[in-house]
Design brief:
CATH architecture: 2-Layer Sandwich
Distance between the termini: 68 Å
Radius of gyration: 20 Å
Strand order of the largest sheet: 2-6-5-4-3
Oligomer: single chain
CATH class: Alpha Beta
CATH topology: TATA-Binding Protein
Helix content: 25-40%
Largest sheet: 5 strands, antiparallel
């Protein structure tokens, strides 16, 4: 019975170690100069692009605030435990989403490059995809 329990403890330890490793920090992915492809093929106004970005973020529970002409700040709070903040720059024909700040997201550097919890890139990609959808609407 003791051998079985030891084996179970070892197996559980290995499983937990693998799970912990799977969530280790990954490189921060910034999305720069993403081309806006409107449904009618014509560039939209700056106000229309801004409204589409705000709608896209709001639909995904992001808080989007202004930060000057052609600039927004997106903040996502997850379970009151994790926070990510991104800069969103936009023009009539393109937009960019870049890392600004985070809380409890394992942000750091490895080999001089920024790294973060993999969910950061996942949540930002969802925002990017939502912005693409919103900016394609007529």
């Amino acid at each position: 019975m003791k051998i079985f329990l030891r084996g179970l403890v070892v197996a559980l330890s290995i499983t937990l170690a693998i799970a912990a490793h799977a969530r280790s920090a990954v490189p921060v992915i910034n999305h720069e100069n993403i081309v806006i492809v409107p449904a009618n093929g014509k560039n939209q106004s700056l106000d229309t692009v801004k409204a589409a970005i705000i709608r896209a973020g709001t639909n995904l529970q992001w808080n989007i605030s202004e930060n000057g002409n052609g600039k927004l700040i997106g903040t996502l709070n997850v379970r009151s435990k994790h926070t990510i903040v991104v800069d969103i720059a936009y023009a009539t024909d393109k937009f960019s989403i870049t890392y600004k700040d985070s809380t409890n997201m394992k942000f750091g550097t490895e080999d001089g490059k920024p790294v973060i919890h993999p969910f950061y890139n996942k949540w930002v990609k969802h925002l990017l995809d939502s912005i693409r959808v919103e900016t394609q609407k007529p």
